[in-house]
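Q&A FORM
Asked by: J.P.
Topic: structure of Transglutaminase family protein

PROVIDED:
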Amino acid sequence: MHYQLRHTTRYDYSAEVALSHNEARLLPRELPWQQVGQTDIAIHPTPVRLRERRDFFGNRVGYFSIQELHGGLEVTATSLVTTSPRPEPQGHFISWEQAGACLREGTDCLEARLFILDSDFVAADAALADYARDSFTPGRSLVEAVYALNQQIFTEFTYDPEHTTIATPLLDVLASRRGVCQDFAHLAIGCLRSLGLAARYVSGYMETLPPPGQPKLQGADATHAWLAVFIPGWGWLEIDPTNGCLPDERYIILGWGRDFSDVTPLKGVMSGGGNDRLTVAVDVIPVVEAGPRS
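REPLIED BY: S.T.
REPLY: Here is the structure written out as tokens.
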């Protein structure tokens, strides 16, 4: 699949800002199943400096600084991306208990150990472990258990964008059985970490389709969140509990980390402002390649 991505973030300030320093994680990662073509970040007002680096997790980070009075900020990232099918685990894999032992003791799981630990938005808890045990029955294959947890959350929770905020505690989400993709990704990660397993938060986009016969609205897409679970001896397996499926070519990865705080699309500090108004518009546009002429 070929896509053109456009992500525009605009802040309108109630008072002028004199200085701001910002980080943008808006450029997709290069992966075996995701090839990234031309990318660009347009910023208004024009920053005095703009440079790109890689963070601890290998995500692309654009740093920029604005040193003039400004009443708003607009950042637009555009990218061309080609996706292909992801690899999927086949055959028999170790049980989830054996996977936990490998993560605790095995030297071939060192890269994943960071993702067992608590993070800003996700902390292990006995209540999360108890919730996950319906899927993680004794001796069950780790892959089968992960698939079951993915369906369990999808079936038992209701998508409700009015119910939670970024600050809603994870145990409140568990109790209410309501939330959004960010909440469900954090919930699944919390369940897995509470069982001694490694899981990381994935930020990106998913192509959405309009109702039959209707045109796709510009800016109607949004960022999406899902997660990946470490399978010892195989690698990272992505799941999407919001939709109860495995991510495919429609899913485009921006980055990953321990939770949302590691992959916030745009964040920074500023002098001035207050009562800011945020507007975000995202377009994931399929690009149809022209076939050979007859």
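FOLLOW-UP: The first strand starts at residue 2 and ends at 24.
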